[in-house]
Amino acid sequence: MQPLKLIVGLGNPGAQYSQTRHNAGFWFIEQLAEKYHIDLSMDKKFHGLTGRGRICGQDVRLLLPVTFMNKSGQAVVPMANFYDIDNNQLLIAHDELDIPAGSIKLKTGGGHGGHNGLKDITPHIGNDFHRLRIGIGHPGHKSKVSGHVLSKPSPDDQIAIMAALDAAHSVIEPLITGDLDKARNHINGFKLAE
Asked: What's the domain count of the chain?
């Protein structure tokens, strides 16, 4: 596998959304930027906050789209094209309804699963990129999904989500350098301590 060159976190811009479940992808990138001292600044060309730095010896770019979730492709596609980043060098971190809070999965390819951010990206670049699927749990009925993703997690769910993100950060080296099997085994096997 090739090393990652671009890591994207999906979410919605604005303070009113910053703590909502839909912004779990943002949380992952913000932690990564802080840990590796990568400054994120507005880049109008790519409709997002971008940064570039070295993570585990690799030159990596980070992106937080400032479009709303359903327009994420307006940021991701131009940046991937401009820097000639192949899908196997791209990781997109996003919230995932079909996984409980406190679980996290690393996956390559697949459909958009109804996720509006992925739905806006895949028609332009295909679906064979890597995804870090951050579990936020399902509210139980599709009529409740919008309110669920746009609200803050309960305190217990917030702790569980952050523990899952920590599990991903703990194997950042194989994740970045392209040893995705090693990263996948650790991330997909993560279980919350009882």
From this structure: 1
**How many CB atoms sit inside 10 A of residue 14's CB?**
10
Domain hosting residue 125, numbered range:
6-188
CATH number at residue 172: 3.40.50.1470
CA angle at 142 for the pair 28 and 123, rounded to the nearest 5°: 60
**Cα distance between residue 83 and residue 108, in whole Å:** 21
Q: Work out the average pLDDT over 175-191.
A: 91
- Is residue 194 situated within a structural domain? no
Query: Is 1 inside any structural domain?
Result: no
pLDDT in tens, 113-163: 778 789 999 988 888 999 999 999 988 888 888 889 899 999 999 999 999
Selected catalytic residue, list 22, 47, 94, 148 = 22
Q: What is the pLDDT of residues 58-96, one digit of tens each?
A: 999 999 999 999 999 999 999 999 999 999 999 999 999
pLDDT of residue 194: 59
Q: Please report whether residue 78 resides in a domain.
A: yes
Q: Is residue 11 part of a domain?
A: yes
Neighbours of 30 (CB within 10 A): 19
Q: Tell me whether residue 115 is one of the annotated catalytic residues.
A: no
